[in-house]
Specification:
91 residues, mainly alpha, two-stranded antiparallel ribbon, 3 helices
Amino acid sequence: MFAWMVWTLPTALAFAGLALLLVVMAVWARLSPPVARRGFLRIETDRGDRLYIGLISAAAVLVGWMAVTDLSMWLALGCAVLVVVVIGIWG
C-alpha cells in the first residue's frame, strides 16, 4: 500500500519520532493541562505552541544550514535541537 513512498530508514524514524512526540504531548496535556505564559517570543504561548514554533524553527535552521554551508549535518541537527529546547523552555 505504501510501497510507492520508498521511505528510507532515517525518514521513517523521523516521522515515527514526530508521531511519538505528538502522542506524548497529548497525554501530557491530558494529565496536566497547559498554561499559557509569555517568554522571550513576546507572545502568550503554551507548551504545544512552543513545540510547534520550535519544530518550524528547527526546519528553518536545517534548510538554512544546507543552503549556506557544506559542514556536517550532525552539527546542523545539534543546532536545530538546541533551538527547539531553548524555545520550549524559555520561549
